[in-house]
Here is the input.
Amino acid sequence: METKTFDEALEIIESFPEDQRESIIEIVKRRLIEERREQLAQTVKEAREEYARGEVRSGTVDDLMREIAQ
Here is the structure.
């Protein structure tokens, strides 16, 4: 499979009619949103697992700032 560079991809996209370029933008936006959603879901899952294992500490912002300063 041939790897395309970013510039080559842009050139290809620019050769499409305007309506197809707009469709590509929307598709890419939706895919990015879905990817971020999946990443967030994974982060939440990991945080819940850490909480269940007792690996989460609680405290105030001041507590956190004191810990960071140490």
Remarks:
- Residues 6-69 form one domain.
